[in-house]
Amino acid sequence: MRRPGLWSICLTLFGLVLMLYLGVWQLQRKAWKDGLIAEMAAGITAPPLSLAKHLDELQKLNYRAVRLQGRFLHKLEAYLGPRVHQGQAGLHVLTPFQMRDGPVVLVNRGWIPPNRRDPTTRTTGQVTGDVTLDGVLRSDLQQGPWTPDYDAKADQWFWYDISGISQNRKIDLISAVVQADSTDIPGGLPIGGVAQPKLKNDHLQYALTWFSLSVVLLIVFIVSHRRKGDEA
User: Fold this and answer.
1) Is the pLDDT of residue 43 over 90?
2) Burial grade of 165 (CB within 10 A; 0-12, 13-18, 19 or more)
């Protein structure tokens, strides 16, 4: 077996250290994601809290099941997209909800196809009068680094921009969104429950990939220099 050169050893060690580091980092991410998923599951499956009674705890109630009582302000609805449902692109309907004896909160009522954006094409689903609504509260709302700003020409939002929607629709909204549950809506649209939070946890798979690559690199290093040694 031929003795490997210094550069070959350094590059191989660098690759091994990097891959092992990434594998360990993915395991750490897995542990963090497991905790977050458990926290979300506990909040989502808990008996719903009355949001009107916990308005001073919005940040603590992120991913918490809540209940609203009041009425929809359908004339001020906004549209979040594009959003895919069962392989079809469409939009989520965001409708301000006037809580009984309380402020207004934005509700993600669910998904609609593009050709049903006009509320007159789904009048049955524009429920009037007092209603009781269950959903999941989202209060940790941040724009992603690659998420576009509001498209004024298309009147379309790409994230829960509460401040922007408040100004655009000329209404004062609290700093949170309620993602409605899957309770059937008259007429079938919007399709509720599609905005309920779901988290994937593929970090173990990623970790195993990095650890496997480190093993492959070590094998290639050994086999390569053994062949060179045999040829010599």
Assistant:
1) no
2) buried
